[in-house]
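Annotators were shown the component list below and the corresponding predicted structure, then asked to write short factual statements about the assembly.
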Amino acid sequence: MKEEKSKKILLAHGSGGQLMHDLIKNTILPKFNNLSLNKLSDSALLDFKGEELAFTTDSFVVSPLFFRGGDIGKLAVCGSVNDLVVAGSQPLYLSLALIIEEGLDYSLLEKVVDSIAQSCRNSGVKVVTGDIKVVEKGACDKLFINTSGIGRVIRNLEIKNIRVKDKVIITGRIAEHGLSILSQRNGIDFGVNIKSDCQSLEGLLLPLLNKCKAIKFMRDPTRGGLATTLNEIAQTSGLGIVIDETSVPISSRVRAACELLGIDPLYIANEGKAIMVVEPAAAENIVNRLRQQRLGRYAGIIGSITREPKAAVVLNTGVGTSRILDMLISESLPRIC
Amino acid sequence: MKEEKSKKILLAHGSGGQLMHDLIKNTILPKFNNLSLNKLSDSALLDFKGEELAFTTDSFVVSPLFFRGGDIGKLAVCGSVNDLVVAGSQPLYLSLALIIEEGLDYSLLEKVVDSIAQSCRNSGVKVVTGDIKVVEKGACDKLFINTSGIGRVIRNLEIKNIRVKDKVIITGRIAEHGLSILSQRNGIDFGVNIKSDCQSLEGLLLPLLNKCKAIKFMRDPTRGGLATTLNEIAQTSGLGIVIDETSVPISSRVRAACELLGIDPLYIANEGKAIMVVEPAAAENIVNRLRQQRLGRYAGIIGSITREPKAAVVLNTGVGTSRILDMLISESLPRIC
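Structure shown to annotators:
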């Protein structure tokens, strides 16, 4: 008990991985004990006067503020929009709360706000309420943003609908966001400029969702990467997931950069991708439809839902072996979002 | 134009006062240009499938994290709850986003989460969705919290309903929150322990709102204090407000502390008070009803709506003079909330 008291919060508690899940499950959920929060989904699905509403929140602390393919403003809008979309809802309204470090260039703030406004127009959402706090120099690093979002639920995508033999789809190439941040932050040049995949997914996913009842569940693999999000799905459903490593879409330059750095792309964050769990008979058709769109052109089936191992993910590797694919344990890369 | 580019964000841009209003009006609103945001109210009032929904957001960066009368967790819940309540809505759902500095004591985080949970139970709201980010040491000061809230609109309290001769009520004694923070942060002992008024107001205000159609508008005078919030009401309505200084409820120890420090309690933040604008004939009755409750026991009529001066606030002082009461201009006290 004494030992417990002297514990400190580590960077890994914010990684999206195992330690964060432990913190949430052991320390936060029991204090609130309500069903919506317990589901730990990207958005809470709530009753509002008999209508179903999706509600989500995310804070963004990414460093640097501007990166190849985006900036903290675009990331904040896309992040909340995508959390609503993968929950099966049409994003309607966003809140925008800024925490600004004293001394920040006014023009930089304007650039970020421009980017937020542009991203909102692109996604068809409105910033309807906001807040600004300014803290003294050294009390925060330049700029943090929180966006919370409200969506209108189109389809109830419940993890409990997932069945053995369902197919797992990823809508595009993985690991681009995290790698873009890592390379810029550390001044590593891979010879090629890896660009974040930061994009909002309403245009890709909502028309499909409207047409296609075979889509059972979606989630966006952000912090902790594809491996961690697949583990969340496996743990919550109690089922297994078998992933075929060679089917996971990844660009040759991302693969090369990951090999160079000795990091696994399956644990690197994405900010414009979704995992979909779909009925087996419809999987090919859904992939074909995704591929007709620019954001879905590298979509593919990467695996299946299985009865065993329960609540775990198995990776069939390119060299013919199999291994359990764990959640992210340690933090490789703080402040990627 | 060049000069504009080199401008820096100042602490005063987050004060709730004139500079913050300028920043919002000149730099933020034009980029979004939507009616809900333009109203700059505590909560946006939105259509959700034909039903009216209130939506609000606030980040909390208060230092110290624990203060007499509350802590950052209680403050975050009360802040968002009160923003929903003064917008005429019943608070239903909260989001909770934590930005934590690496190395924070786990037990301190637990204390804050306990306080959030307790405050939610007190106010009858549920935390339904959340987010955790951990940043490296030095990238934020201990702990920042964002809460966004959704409420069900009970009564449409629109500023355009305010008329000349309406009465202005404050629900209790002013300046206690800001002064509590100031005294603890600077280790100033006023001989008496001034306690923050941090409280949620749903229990005081919602039953009244249900019963009493004479309530036209409410707002909670947080950052920038009573004077700044009255100016917001005057500017938005285009009407004048005349305040009688001697009617403003304030405890003798707060008054003494303010005199000692040479600061004006009218500009000090409150976190458990509301300004109400009500029909003149009902004002006494409303004050009497407020006074029957513990949180409203010092409620009083402090002034009236006038035709002149347009969009400004006049203070009739205790010594028989009158002066224009401006918005807060410079920041006297950063990170009070």
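Statements collected:
1. The mean pLDDT of chain B is 94.
2. The domain at 159-324 of chain B is CATH 3.90.650.10 (Phosphoribosyl-aminoimidazole Synthetase; Chain A, domain 2).
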